[in-house]
């Protein structure tokens, strides 16, 4: 009975292993063009084909959120001159843009408007506005805003934005580095202070 059970488990494990490998090869072939383009973007080399760079986000004794933050900051410093890097989380590749010159092409595009699932973690906070909408809904809202709003308007906001950003940073610096904070309240307050501060200057 036991040898038969072990043989069955062995066969099942072999089938599962072959299935995973076949799926991985199929995924790579199906997305070959995407993979070729991603290969041009700098990033840490994945140690394990199916795991990607997940090992970078694990440090013994360090909470996951702090570990993720430290790793992303370190990668931004490492690839600073490129303004972007690629990381692989399992079979999924993520491209992180962190400089204005690399973000311009995305922000100025009228075609690259589909949002990845990572955006929807902030859906409850920001709602279905211009940032998170897509398709015709995004185009209608963009057209409405573009006709009433020019980016040069923001030039007048720069001093108050810098001032309130310093206030926000000072608040966050006072938080215990091992503690946690709900970022929504200070960010919302900072935004309102910028808007109201500008209106006070205009009056």
TrEMBL record:
An annotated Gene Ontology molecular function: monooxygenase activity
Signal peptide limits: none
Transmembrane segments: 6-27
An example Gene Ontology CC term for this record: endoplasmic reticulum membrane
Record's keyword terms, sorted: Endoplasmic reticulum, Heme, Iron, Membrane, Metal-binding, Monooxygenase, Oxidoreductase, Transmembrane, Transmembrane helix
Subcellular location: Endoplasmic reticulum membrane
Pfam families: p450 (PF00067)
PANTHER family in the cross-refs: CYTOCHROME P450 4C3-RELATED (PTHR24291:SF189), CYTOCHROME P450 FAMILY 4 (PTHR24291)
Protein name: Cytochrome P450
């Amino acid at each position: 009975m036991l040898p038969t059970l072990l043989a069955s488990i062995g066969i099942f494990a072999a089938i599962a292993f072959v299935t995973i490998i076949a799926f991985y090869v199929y995924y790579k072939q199906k997305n070959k063009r995407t993979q070729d383009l991603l290969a041009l973007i700098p990033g840490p080399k994945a140690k394990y084909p199916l795991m990607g760079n997940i090992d970078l986000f694990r440090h013994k004794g360090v909470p996951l959120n702090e570990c993720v933050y430290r790793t992303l900051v370190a990668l931004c410093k490492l690839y600073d001159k490129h303004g972007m890097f690629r990381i692989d989380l399992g079979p999924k590749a993520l491209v992180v843009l962190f400089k204005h010159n690399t973000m311009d092409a995305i922000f100025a595009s009228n075609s690259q408007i589909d949002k990845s699932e990572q955006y929807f973690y902030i859906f409850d906070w920001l709602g279905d506005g211009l940032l998170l909408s897509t398709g015709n809904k995004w185009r209608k809202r963009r057209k409405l805003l573009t006709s009433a709003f020019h980016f040069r308007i923001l030039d007048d906001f720069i001093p108050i934005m810098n001032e309130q950003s310093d206030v926000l940073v000072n608040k966050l610096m006072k938080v215990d580095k091992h503690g946690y904070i709900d970022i929504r309240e200070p960010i919302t307050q900072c935004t309102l202070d910028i808007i109201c501060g500008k209106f006070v200057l205009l009056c």
